[in-house]
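Entry:
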Amino acid sequence: MSNFSLAQISSPQASPRSKIFQKVGLVDISIDYSRPSKKERKIFGNIVPFNEVWRTGANQATAISFSEDVKVNSKLLKAGEYFLYSIPDSEKNGLSLIFYEKNKNWGALKEIDENKVLLNVFSSFITLPFTIETFTISINNISNNGATLDFAWDDQFISYNLDVMTTEKMKKQIDNVMSNNPTKNDLSSAAVFYMEENINIKQAMKWINLAYPDNKEHRYWQYRYKSLIYEKAGKMKKAIQYAKLGLDDAIKTGGPDGVNTLNRLNDRLLSAK
């Protein structure tokens, strides 16, 4: 009597699944979708028909989630998880992106139930000078306050603006912290944020000086913060002074990254003097 086992063939998926996680500002964004390939076919107007609902991928419905409220193309979308459907529009030459109430539907949707549409936004196609073989969703152009939600396939690219409303949230958070015995790190973080977002540079200077007063020694990155804030305030003499102190500390105790960063800052400040 012989014993044998039946082997199972594991073959590549035609539309492999992909997951994206990205932090933008204070918001966690995740996307779960499948990625079909072009395979020498025309996509929009053919594989993906115009004026019909597309699952924005393949296989199971594409899902997207936001940990906090955001704005997509300036329209408010509440925090939560959604299915992501879309409709290519031949007349407008673009894509209507539909954030749809999550349900038990697995894949393609025959028709849209308007009661389940949480948001519908439109962006125009941009024709690329090259071909994208595999359908790609990505989050790009990331800043403190937002990013772009981008789609690319074949020779078409579509982009939607994401506003994560960081400035409003941060100002409220900073106000609360500053009224309740802020730490040195709190003061520094608030000062740097105000500097980066051009909110109130005089207030940023007050906070950074409370965090790192002149009568004490500090580390090179802390001097760098002071230098950048004073540069933004137009106080170049002080900015140069702090950059030099930072460079001295970086040379003495810091790694090459610190030295290079402070060298570049010193060179820029001295050339602008």
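The chain has a mean pLDDT of 92.
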